[in-house]
Design goal:
about 130 residues; alpha/beta; five-stranded parallel sheet; 5 helices; globular
């Protein structure tokens, strides 16, 4: 399983990777600090697509919401499960995301054990 995280906070990526390692699943993890880098990666047909991408809402230049909209515009990316993974999401943001179609969101857990439980649930539902 290929899992990606798009988040401008590298500390989040470190914690996320530790949680994935503790779960013990066979996965490849890729971290992108900017939405542009992730979009550039998936737009190259030579690159493999992730099965799941976790996206922070608040990022510079291209927000998580804008990035997911770009993913949903291209049917080549239909196999990517995009999940909002953020510290906070407003009601207006939730409504805007719902207008784009089905989506999931999770508030970033403050404890490693909670992150592990969240990831286990998402990954087991995706298999």
């Amino acid at each position: 399983m290929q899992i990606a995280l798009v988040d401008d906070d590298s500390d989040e990526a470190t914690i996320f990777q530790i949680a994935l390692e503790l779960i013990g699943i066979d996965s490849k993890f890729n971290y992108y600090e900017r939405a542009f880098d992730f979009l550039s990666h998936i737009e190259n047909p030579k690159n493999s697509l992730p099965d799941i991408v976790f996206v922070d809402m608040k990022m510079p230049k291209i927000s998580g919401q804008e990035m997911i909209a770009k993913i949903k515009e291209n049917t080549r990316f239909d196999s990517i499960k995009a999940i909002i993974y953020t510290a906070h999401i407003s009601e207006a943001q939730k409504l805007a995301m719902e207008a784009m179609g089905p989506y999931e969101f999770f508030i970033k857990p403050t404890e490693l054990e909670d992150l592990i439980a969240m990831l286990k649930g998402i990954i087991s539902n995706h298999k």
